Amino acid sequence: VPVVAVVVAAGSGSRLGAAVPKSLVPLGGVPLVRRAVDALVAGGAQAIVVTVPAERAADVEDALNGVAAPVRCVPGGATRQESVRIGLSELGAADDAIVLVHDAARALIPPDVVSAVAAAVLTSGEAVVPVLPVVDSIREVGEQSSRVVDRGRLRSVQTPQGARMWQLRAAHDRIAADGVEVTDDAAACEYVGIPVTLVAGHRDAMKITEPVDLILAEALLAHRTA
Ligand code: CTP
Ligand code: MG
């Protein structure tokens, strides 16, 4: 079964506040989008569509020069959800292909997690999400009061998220038609009744969102190559 991927990299990175779009920000000298795409290829992705900021398309294409699998860049949409939908429509893959959707901002995704997600799509027939336990104590806040939430029942969600191509296309078409907003691709699948299987995520798959995350990612990278 072919494994293909959409890497969403079209965001501006307003919270990171760098001089360039987040996907072009260097981590250990290599742009985030390049690290993410290389990791997906290492984890088994055979063809990749990358959604890019329209005004920086040429720079992203440069950054992806020489990737060991076919890569195509397309301008993204106004939201992540729109970017995913555009990316899916640009993937010429068969309906039964396994498709992975990944945030370029999760640049240090271990290839083992990528291949584990793809394998779980194959064995479960469901949408697949990598997750981590929640380490903080959590309180739910109401109008007048707050209460503790049992964090043992909570998981934080990462990418790549996977499904069969027909499942993800159907999900994104339906949520677009219904004008619904979802936070991620597994939630899109759930919206059309596709169950979700969880697999183990990894600390390194953290999303680089704020400046402190880039500092942490540089440290994780240094530790990895040490
Ligand atoms: N993304 C995208 N198209 C959008 C918005 C986001 O492809 N219209 C991508 C981003 O490039 C990123 C991923 O979705 O790889 C996760 O989004 P996020 O971390 O929120 O990135 P940004 O939207 O760029 O950052 P911010 O919200 O701080 O502006
Ligand atoms: Mg965003």
From TrEMBL:
One of its GO terms (molecular function) is 2-C-methyl-D-erythritol 4-phosphate cytidylyltransferase activity. It catalyses: 2-C-methyl-D-erythritol 4-phosphate + CTP + H(+) = 4-CDP-2-C-methyl-D-erythritol + diphosphate. The record marks R151, K207 as: Positions MEP for the nucleophilic attack. Keywords: Isoprene biosynthesis, Nucleotidyltransferase, Transferase. One of its GO terms (biological process) is isopentenyl diphosphate biosynthetic process, methylerythritol 4-phosphate pathway. Its EC number is 2.7.7.60. Pathway: Isoprenoid biosynthesis; isopentenyl diphosphate biosynthesis via DXP pathway; isopentenyl diphosphate from 1-deoxy-D-xylulose 5-phosphate: step 2/6. The record marks R15, K22 as: Transition state stabilizer. Transmembrane segments: none annotated. Pfam families: IspD (PF01128). InterPro entries: IspD, IspD/TarI, IspD/TarI_cytidylyltransf_bact, ISPD_synthase_CS, Nucleotide-diphossugar_trans. Belongs to the IspD/TarI cytidylyltransferase family. IspD subfamily. PANTHER family: 2-C-METHYL-D-ERYTHRITOL 4-PHOSPHATE CYTIDYLYLTRANSFERASE, CHLOROPLASTIC. Catalyzes the formation of 4-diphosphocytidyl-2-C-methyl-D-erythritol from CTP and 2-C-methyl-D-erythritol 4-phosphate (MEP). This is 2-C-methyl-D-erythritol 4-phosphate cytidylyltransferase. It comes from Tessaracoccus lapidicaptus. The gene is ispD.
